[in-house]
Amino acid sequence: MTVQPRIDVATMRRALSTAEAVMALNPPESPMIEGYRLFRVSGGDVAWLDMPANTGAYAVFGSHPRCDVKFASGDDVCVRHLVATCCNLPDGGFGLRLMDLQTSIPFFVDDDVPRRSIVVSGPLLVRIGKHVVGGLPVGPRASSRVLQVSSCGMSEPPRGLESVSEKAADGAAPPAPTEGITTSHRFARGEISHITSVRPVSHIEEMVAPRAKTGYVRLTLQSSERSAAVELPEHALDDGVLLGRADNCLDRGLRAVLSTHISRTHLLLLRDGAEIMALDLCSTNGTRYAGQKVRRVMIPAEGLALTLGPELTLIWHPQT
Question: Which of 221, 86, 94, 206 is nearest to 148 (CA)?
């Protein structure tokens, strides 16, 4: 059964007008800082967040009270639904990466094609259930030029460029996006956005290797009574790997180690360029490094240990 968006494109564009009217009364504190202004529109309610491009900032969208951008609870969104990060582009600029956290509800841009993970250069507007989520570039370069197509988050660069609007004009339904294929979209205000579909976030059970070897990383989850280790292929970190209590995040003994103190989607392991990061997904009981509560930690080659919740230890073993 094909999944369809719950609101149409006209409603999505009206939501953008509502968001722009509200946010115009609340401009960014520093117009010289480059990044994205993220927003969520639910009916007439608007929430937004400014995310600088070069600080390692990210935002979690969901209905959980700790999320950075909150949805009202309902059957059309999950407790932790999306992660948005700024990412570096090959031309030296910045773009926006939007990642679904393995939910049952994909998101849609203006072509009614379900998506799970994308990179965009330029503005972004998507539909999630009955909500609209967007991102507007801010800063000196945002108003002067459109950034080039990004290959961020992909093992290979984009293989081609297809215009969804041209396909629609011919009366043909747009094809399902292929990883690495970039589509161009005319934004409501006239700018052109380039959207690249990339591989979605992975579950641990999909990524576990039979044994550690070159090109793999090893991590251990350890409680006071139990421990379990898994090996993951390094390329999986480009797409993102979830850790948490959700059934499809568990594999090979991890279920026995995790307790109810760990959120269902607690941590995202993600590589951006040369950096490997651990991103806390606004978890209820938090993540700590060296005794301090943290949101984002860069994982060095020599490894580290994180505390998830009150007592679970995540050990990232040194890479050899």
Answer: 94
What digits encode the pLDDT tens for the residues 93-111? 788 999 999 888 999 998 8
User: pTM of the predicted model, to two decimals?
Assistant: 0.81
Q: What's the pLDDT at 139?
A: 80
- Report the pLDDT value the prediction gives residue 142, as an integer from 0 to 100: 59
Asked if the model's pLDDT at residue 252 lies above 60, the reply is no
Q: With beta carbons less than 8 A apart as the criterion, state whether 308 and 287 touch.
A: yes
